[in-house]
Specification:
Elements lengths: L12 E4 L5 H13 L5 E3 L6 E9 L2 E9 L1 E5 L1 H4 L3 E9 L2 E5 L2 E5 L4 E5 L5 E5 L3 E9 H5 L10 E4 L4 H13 L8 H19 L3 H26 L8 H7 L4 H9 L5 H18 L8 H7 L5 H12 L3 H9 L1
Antiparallel strand pairs: 1-3, 2-5, 3-4, 4-11, 5-10, 6-9, 6-11, 7-8, 7-10, 9-12
Helix pairs in contact: 4-5, 4-6, 5-6, 9-10
Length: about 325
């Protein structure tokens, strides 16, 4: 049976049981384990569902998706002793077990696990949407306090650093940053920072993590928010800042770090989306003014002026060029 994998250079490995008959899913899941891709085992008398993507970055492994009716194992043989695992439950419930201890991982919470403390399992009898991070122990230990104090540690959902990490993961897993070797190294460093802050950073580690990982994570999350809401003509700095529980001044400082402004970023994103729509035959029947409104412009004259300044061509010229 052909397995529905998708792989490319610097692209994630993807797998889903969605197109498989129920009778074939257990075989497919066990093939994942046998090939060393994902150590999971079906639970008896449970519906099995897998929909995952896996990235390998320099300094971090990321596994994201949905699992149901499965037990996920972590062992010394699979991971070695020098890694820690940080799992975030985005939705649903999991049960973590290690050395006779058991922790319930609820919606929004996270857990820190280390194979140096012994094998562990994550049990997911019902659907769980999650992100699992595997990072070098020394990368987090350099920033965190007492990393070796406990083999299994839960992090409450209301932990601020965990909320920032969750937003960052949501942004980057839909971004091209993970496909770039240069950018993916920075992403791994940001993940180390945010994990350390979530479990408890040292004073010096917190200063480093705040200046590096938190700034990058908040800026990325805000950019993703803007892109997701470009069509809203009333998109404002104040509204975006409020959604991310920061001040408008702080958002200004984030964009200043990249020598741009909130307004410039929004404008460039809107113009870029309009340009792509004008070049795309799918939107050939849509008027230029309708496209301008679609991407968030409320003033057609301003749209035309801004478009010409950026592309040295009118929207009509760009549309005509896309047809040639």
């Amino acid at each position: 049976m052909a397995m529905p994998f998708a792989t490319e250079t610097n692209r994630p490995l993807r797998f889903s049981t969605g197109d498989l008959a129920a009778a074939d899913r257990i075989h497919a899941v066990r093939a994942l384990r046998d090939r060393g891709i994902l150590p999971i085992e079906p639970l008896p008398d449970r519906a099995v569902h897998v929909h995952i993507a896996k990235w390998i970055l320099p300094g971090a492994g990321i596994l994201a998706g949905t699992l149901c009716g499965l037990r996920q194992d972590g062992s010394r043989q699979v991971a070695g002793l020098e890694d820690v695992f940080f799992g975030v439950n985005l939705a649903g419930r999991s049960v973590a077990r290690q050395r006779g201890r058991e922790l319930l991982l609820d919606h929004g919470a996270a857990i820190l696990l280390s194979c140096a403390e012994g094998d562990f399992t994550l049990v997911r009898p019902t659907p769980v949407r999650f992100v699992g991070l595997r990072v070098p122990r020394n990368a987090v230990a350099a920033l965190a306090r007492g990393l070796d104090d406990a083999g299994m540690r839960s992090i409450p959902r209301d932990t601020e650093a965990l909320r920032i990490l969750s937003r960052y993961l949501d942004a980057i897993l839909h971004d091209e940053a993970l496909a770039s070797p240069e950018l993916s190294s920075s992403v791994a460093s940001h993940l180390h920072d945010l994990i350390a802050l979530s479990v408890g950073a040292s004073r010096d580690g917190a200063a480093v993590a705040q200046a590096r990982g938190v700034v990058a994570a908040r800026l990325q999350a805000i950019k993703s928010d803007i892109v997701a809401n470009l069509g809203d003509c009333s998109l404002t700095l104040a509204a975006v800042a409020a959604r991310h529980a920061v001040t408008p001044r702080y958002v200004h400082k984030l964009f200043d770090s990249e020598d741009t402004t909130f307004t410039q970023f929004v404008l460039h994103q809107r113009l870029g989306r309009a340009y792509r729509m004008l070049r795309n035959p799918r939107f050939a029947a849509r008027s230029i003014s309708a496209i301008a409104f679609d991407v968030g412009f409320g003033d057609i004259s301003y749209f035309n002026r801004a478009f010409r300044r950026r592309y040295a061509a009118t929207p009509s010229d760009v549309r005509a060029g896309g047809r040639s």
